[in-house]
Amino acid sequence: MDDSAVYFLFSELCMGITCIVIFLINRKLIVNEPIWTAIPNFCNIAAEIAVFFSVASLTRKIEKKWFFFAMTAVALMALLIELMRDQFAIQTIVWLFTSSLTCIFITNYVVCRFKLPKALSSNEFMRLFTWLELGLVIFGFIRISATFLSAPILPRYDPSDLSVLIFSLYIVLACFRYFAYLGIRITFIDPSNPGQNRLNKPLVQAIEEKDQLLLGLIASNRVIGISALASSLAHQLSQPLTTIALRADTTRRDLVQSGQDPRTIASLDEISAQSTKLSGLIKNLRQFFNANSDEFAPVNLQKKIDAIIEIVEPNLEAKKITLVKDYQSDPIFFGDAIQIQQVLINIMTNAIDALVQSNANQKEICITLSQHESIATLIIKDNGGGIDPQFMPSIFDLYKSSKKEGLGVGLWLSKTIMARHQGSITAMSHPSGWTEFKITLPIHVEANN
Questions:
Q1: In this structure, which long-range contacts are made by residues 412-418, counting pairs with CB atoms below 8 Å and at least 24 apart in sequence?
Q2: Model confidence, pTM
Q3: CB neighbours (10 Å) of residue 154?
Q4: Does domain 200-290 have CATH number 1.10.287?
Q5: Using an 8 Å Cβ cutoff, are 390 and 373 in contact?
Q6: Which class is 295-449 in CATH?
Q7: 253-309 pLDDT per residue, tens
């Protein structure tokens, strides 16, 4: 428990002791002696001071020495009241006690009403708590006023009906204040120093998920901007590349007819081939970034894997990562090609990131595509050191990521996409340092026959 909860628990404990001792005195189960009257007097004032520390501790750190100092002062005051009991009239003793208690009521009300941060003072339960403190202030003034009557309002010495009524009101106000405090702890989180307790745990989790979702939306918005830029850039590049390929092909034909240098013709062939390859890459990028539909159709899995490899190949070469392909079959599945490619690029990107951070001498990504009966199986492995065992149980959970900069969305989304395609995705970390992602998809029977 935090300090605020400890202080309030102490307050309720003091209130309980006060009620028990007064009940035992009125039932004549204990003797009405100074020791037994000092205990409820001390506990009553100590309870209200503990409430003050509890509220103040919600938004700031208060050294515990001040609480112990306050408790010592209250104990001395309770002792002083008992020493004065035989020398002064009962009205004077009651006035001294109730005046001290009412001053604490007023202090608590002023703090709740005017001294709390806006985030806390605007809390609905804090507002109720403040009104209840005002009710206790009114109770205090009623008791002070009663000291000028012939018979002061006391909870003991065979209390009158008026005393029972007034102190019943006090107990009701204190009980509702306790419920209001529980409401505060359930619904309030200090923005400057967020903390979690047993009561507000669901709220803390909801806020954390909201913050993560906001970060995800920001990242998604950035991706949308990148996709728009990539689409525009791809459109602008496609025309010059087409022109380059056509010019190279025309020049090649002219050189062949005129019998020019074969090396020049070979260079033109290379220009044409690379232009065609780059045009295909741009076409894949445009399809990947522009797709916003959710259309299921027969899809050649091998071709879609090659399209993604073509996109990440420059990154593989730059990071000196070897890609090994093992296509044992050429299955066709029924689904959304772009969504499956999104799964593949998520896994490939994670593999590349792991390899970049690893110390492997020979960095490798192995892709194996096979088919058994009506199920196509794709395995993507990398020797990037494996996955920390503590992350394995939650690797596909939303907002769970082993990377500091990761949002924990990619693999969760991949699992969601695979579920929509009636397939599956699993992860395995081998002791040898290999990480394996296994994807299964039901094949499209009609297309494969």
A1: 413/342, 413/346, 414/342, 414/343, 414/346, 414/347, 417/339, 417/340, 417/342, 417/343, 418/343
A2: 0.51
A3: 17
A4: yes
A5: no
A6: alpha beta
A7: 777 777 666 777 777 777 777 677 666 666 655 655 555 555 788 989 999 899 888
